[in-house]
Amino acid sequence: LGTKLIVAECCRNLSTVGATPIAATNNLNFGNPERPEIMAQLVKAIEGLAEACTAFETPITGGNVSLYNETLGQPIYPTPVVGIVGLLPIRVPPPVEFPEPGLAVMLLGGFGQCDEVRFGGTEYAKVVVGQIWGLPPELDLEYEKRVQAATRELVNLGLLRSAHDLSRGGLGAALARCSFGAATIGAQVDLQAEGRLELALFHEAPSRVLVTTAEPGAVMDVARRYGIQAPVIGITQERWLEVRHGGKTVIRLDVEWLRQEWEMALPRTLASWTAVRELAPGR
User: Fold this and answer.
1) What CATH fold (topology level) applies to the domain 96-263?
2) C-alpha closest to that of 24 among 55, 2, 68
3) Is the N end or the C end of the chain the one with fewer CB atoms within 10 Å?
């Protein structure tokens, strides 16, 4: 399932710029295949890769395998890497960033579904909770294909002012990333969902694309034709990223501050490592 999710995400990335996926390559990284559990991982990854590439009509053109990746007997996480190439019409694709205030913010594919079991593989679980557990997100390949086809049509009709697929970090990370443009445009968004805030904001269900448009009615017409959800979840605005959940504003951040925190995350981490090495030489 994990490998199928990777292929779907690669194809979804291409679809957000209006490109049609046409071929794939891969790099499969695993531990010692002489151990039955590692061989099982490798077999399942190959089967998932074959199923997804068949579904998206992206034949494998080549690839390589790296095995025996272990340290002190501990294997790396199963790490299939996939690259997909596509054909792009000659036109300027929509940007990732929100371009201007007053645009409708829509979620092609809908809010998605997630429970505690499938939340354990998210970036939030790993980084914030400090644990991983459970199962990957569910994937309906046919629905994913319809979301991607609708996205490509909307891009090529010129109806989208921005587009960004949802993957690592879920809707919360996508909203932040879309606010990092030079124009410092954020959004006011209502999650329209019950249950826990962190699940609604940071779950990583596939088949979702965050878009903005000046013509939400036309976008909904295309979405209905493809049989996918496309709720309007908010509106773009200057300076602030605001999120409502359960009738309350739960997040209100200055997008310029948010962008600086994002840009400085790696330099600050590297600086802290340097400081530790200077305090404890030889460690």
Assistant:
1) Phosphoribosyl-aminoimidazole Synthetase; Chain A, domain 2 (3.90.650)
2) 55
3) C
The DSSP output letter for 80 is: E
Q: And the tokens for 108? A: 């092609």
Looking at the DSSP bridge assignments, the partners of residue 187 are 236, 241
The CB density around residue 13, as the number of other CB atoms within 10 Å, is: 18
The confidence score (pLDDT) of residue 276 equals 62
Please state whether the predicted TM-score (pTM) of the whole model is above 0.90. yes
Q: Are 124 and 132 in contact (CB under 8 A)?
A: no
Residue ranges of the chain whose pLDDT lies below 50: none
> Is 20-87 a domain of CATH 1.10.230.10?
no
Phi, psi of 194 (to 5 degrees): -90, 170
Question: Residues of the chain with pLDDT > 90: what percent?
Answer: 88
Q: How far is CA 115 from CA 137, 207, 253, in A?
A: 9, 16, 27
The answer to whether the beta carbons of residues 207 and 140 sit under 8 Å apart is: yes
Instruction: Quote the DSSP letter at residue 283.
Output: -
Using only C-alpha atoms, the chain has a radius of gyration, in whole angstroms, of 20
Where do runs of H (alpha helix) occur along 131-206?
141-156, 170-178, 197-202
Q: Give which of 273, 280, 92, 107 is closest to 200, Cα–Cα.
A: 107
Alpha-carbon distance values, 210 to 8, 34, 178, 258 (Å): 16, 43, 9, 19
Give kind and range of the element (H or E) at residue 208.
none
**Domain range annotation of the chain:** 20-87, 96-263
- Residue 180 has a pLDDT of 95
Tell me the two tokens of residue 92. 């300027």
- Neighbour tally for 70: CB within 10 Å: 14
